[in-house]
Amino acid sequence: MEGVMKLSTSAARRVQFSQDALRRWVAAQGTNQAELQEMARLERQRHYGNRLFLRAVVEISNHCDCSCLYCGMRRQNGALDRYRLTHEEIMEAIGKALDLGIRTIMLQSGEDPSFEADAVCRICSETRKMGAQNVILCLGMRPLEQYQAFLAAGANKYILKHETANPVLFAKAKPGITLFARLHHLLNLRRLGFAIGTGCICGLPGQTDEDLADDVLLMRRIRPDMSSVSPFVPSDDSPYGKHPQGDLERTINLMAIMRLALGAALIPSVSALDTLSPGFQLRGLNSGANVMTLNMTPRNKRNNYLIYKEGRRIVDLDHVQRLAEQAHLEPASFPES
Ligand code: SAM
């Protein structure tokens, strides 16, 4: 560790990412952590200067067919008010994002087959016609023909997080789905022509630092265009609700390691960090992240997009500008891909 941490930034780029070294980086503290974060900032600077890329998310439906043990939107949660935004509501939200100058639009939902592919395609093509530069989809696993239709309609990026690289933890946390199947979908998405995003949760029950090191190793093998890590946030309405939240220091360490391991990947500093402890989203930016996501879901619906708990941090332009300034970054449009 000592030796690894003392490497100059250029040498850090040549570091062999062994499982053992990564495991120790995940738990880095004090001066080791500070050096790790500095190397990550320098690596970000090398690829993108001081640009902080903005995207806007519209959470189009909170219906979900999945039974993920960590998620408050799981099918079995009868306490949640379910919604599906209308086409008009979605286009209005997208129009507001474009008016703010944000030209990368992300549509997110639970796994909701009743939100039909034709409806998604119509949104994608209208969003492009309105001037969006990128349409990112994060709608879960869908049939291959639907991915093809989304691409033809103008979507160009798809996020399907691997959640955890430990296949046993994955199978337990996402009943009925295997890690292999999810990765197969992700790689098919790339084969079709999408830029792809993956990501993991830090702090799932039973997850070890070795597992987190494996997350980074898996990301390196996937070579994603976008990658994220979110701390586990317990949701009362889920089987993992009594489990402690994910460790925020480990989460930001992972962000820094991902920057070093993935080079130019787009890495968000997620709102869940601030939901758990205000100030940590800024620390994420100081650990090599270079994306922030504004939430454009209509106000009367977004409190029901409850993957974890009430009181989540809703990111608006003021918040982004404040954090960008504090992190010495300049808000910018997504880089051309
Ligand atoms: N259904 C889509 C999918 O499966 O990719 C996207 C929606 S899903 C709610 C979005 C992400 O929320 C998941 O990929 C997962 O990483 C994250 N998530 C859900 N519950 C969480 C929790 N309790 N803590 C942290 N992240 C969580």
Explain the overall architecture.
The protein has 337 residues and is α/β, with parallel strands linked by helices. The protein is built from 15 helices and 8 strands. The chain has helices at 2-5, 9-12, 19-26, 30-48, 87-99, 117-129, 144-152, 167-173, 179-192, 209-222, 248-262, 271-276, 280-285, 299-302, 317-326; strands spanning 51-61, 104-109, 134-138, 157-159, 195-202, 226-231, 291-295, 330-332. Strands 1, 2, 3, 4, 5, 6, 7 and 8 form an 8-stranded parallel β-sheet that branches. The radius of gyration is 19 Å and the shape is globular. The two termini are 35 Å apart. Residues 1-8 have low confidence and may be disordered. Residues 70-71, 73, 108, 110-111, 138, 140, 160-161, 163, 201, 230, 232-233, 235, 272, 307-308 line the site of S-adenosylmethionine. The site of S-adenosylmethionine has 19 residues, from loops.
Secondary structure elements and pairings:
Elements: H1 2-5, H2 9-12, H3 19-26, H4 30-48, E1 51-61, H5 87-99, E2 104-109, H6 117-129, E3 134-138, H7 144-152, E4 157-159, H8 167-173, H9 179-192, E5 195-202, H10 209-222, E6 226-231, H11 248-262, H12 271-276, H13 280-285, E7 291-295, H14 299-302, H15 317-326, E8 330-332
Parallel strand pairs: 1-2, 1-7, 1-8, 2-3, 3-4, 4-5, 5-6
The structure holds S-adenosylmethionine.
